Amino acid sequence: MVPMIYTLYGFAIFFFIYWSAMWLLHIIAIFYGKYKLHRKLPLPSLDEPYPGVSILKPLMGVDSNLAANLETFFTMSYPQYEILFCIEDEVDPAVTLVEELIKKYPKVSAKLFTGATIVGVNPKINNMNRAFEASIYELVLVSDSGIKMKEDTLLDMVCYMTEKTGLVHQMPFTCDRNGFAAMLEKVYFGTAQARIYLVADLFRANCHTGMSTLLRKSVLNENGGLKTFGCYLAEDFFICKYFLDRGWRTSISSQPALQNSGLCDVNNFQARLTRWAKLRVAMVPLVIIFEPLSECMVIGACAAWASSVLFQWDSVAFYLIHILFWFICDWILLTTVQNGSLPFNKFDFLVGWLFRECSGPYLFLHAIMYPEIQWRNRVFKLSWGGVAQEIKPRIKC
């Protein structure tokens, strides 16, 4: 009986300490976000020329926003850069769109690469490898198709590329769009994702997503170039790990990445979150234990139980107060990341926030139960450590 009581109290102490730590990280993220995001850095000295940048744009298919997104790369206020479009299939409709933009902006250096080079299982690496090897500048920006740039975004990223920094990435966020799915994406990227991303950047931990990443080409070439990471699906994580292991710093820029995909619905977004969870579990197995405890509803319930065991507090009142203050802090964090008025009101935010917080644990559990990863029309299986192999698609119920 006595060992059981000690075990009970041990779990209660663990949950309460973990809950306290999560609140500390939450507060840190808010203050660091106010300090780091949307800052106006001093421009580089006029005595030193701006470094050239090669932009890799892997594309597959066309959506309603693709043309507008790609055009923002032709209108950036940066003196020296090239755009290298990478399209796997020569009959992809994106080919025609790219050719039209190249003709429309003849003063911008842009090239089109069609056909993939098979260097691994990662379709994105296979699609970009030829363009990466043909790039002429030391700084290479890998930018996903759904990213929309501001005129000064590239300049902002270059300003963070100091002598000791090898990789600069943008924190994922979204453009203002209409609809519940768009609101759900903005809520997720401006709260749960932003909280972990900002804290990781402060403590120089690896929390890198590769949707908009500026890196040093020569450092990658020391290890065989981009193709070395073709065996991973989460190439962004392992590229960042590679830089950190070699003593380079990584940093987020002050401007978040503005995702503006024309394909925006709840099912696709949740499938995306599930796929990311599967990757995290394979790369960092301890995620199985700790990630669910970072969710508001889960850690709140555990801490409420712990408070009743340790302090005889009312667990229901504790849980409700926890949810209320978590909601308020998430609203503050979201407005910090947005840096302006939001396209929805507080009630809409409440609905989207509750949907995200309640569905998060379910999506993680689904990722554990069904570890195979579907990426577009391909299915992959991950080994511990993140190495992937492609398998034949199976029919899903």
Characterize the structure shown.
- With 397 residues, the chain is an alpha/beta fold.
- The chain is built from 14 helices and 13 strands.
- Strands 3-2-1-4-8-6-9 form a 7-stranded mixed beta sheet, with helices on both faces.
- Helix 3 links the parallel strand 2 and strand 3.
- Helix 6 runs parallel beside helix 7.
What Rg, in angstroms, do the CA atoms define? 22 Å
Report, as a whole number of angstroms, the end-to-end distance. 46 Å
What's the number of extended β-strand segments?
13
How confident overall, as mean pLDDT?
92
Give the helix tally.
Answer: 14
H and E order: HEHEHEHEEHEEHHEHHEEHHHHHEEE
Strand percentage: 5-15%
* Spatial shape: globular
Largest sheet: 7 strands, mixed
User: What multimeric state do the chains show?
Assistant: single chain
Strand order of the largest sheet: 3-2-1-4-8-6-9
Helix content: 40-55%
Structural class: alpha/beta
Low-confidence stretches: 393-397
What structural keywords apply?
EC 2.4.1.80; transmembrane; 14 helices; ceramide glucosyltransferase activity; 50% helix; membrane; 397 residues; disordered C terminus; 7-stranded mixed beta sheet; 3-stranded mixed beta sheet
Question: What is this structure's SSE topology?
Answer:
Blueprint: H1 2-36, E1 53-59, H2 66-74, E2 81-87, H3 93-104, E3 109-114, H4 123-134, E4 139-143, E5 147-148, H5 153-159, E6 165-169, E7 172-174, H6 180-190, H7 192-202, E8 212-216, H8 217-221, H9 235-245, E9 249-252, E10 257-259, H10 266-283, H11 287-290, H12 296-311, H13 315-338, H14 346-369, E11 373-375, E12 378-382, E13 388-391
Parallel strand pairs: 1-2, 1-4, 2-3, 6-9, 7-10
Antiparallel strand pairs: 4-8, 5-10, 6-8, 11-12, 12-13
Helix pairs in contact: 1-7, 1-12, 1-13, 6-7, 6-13, 6-14, 10-14, 12-13
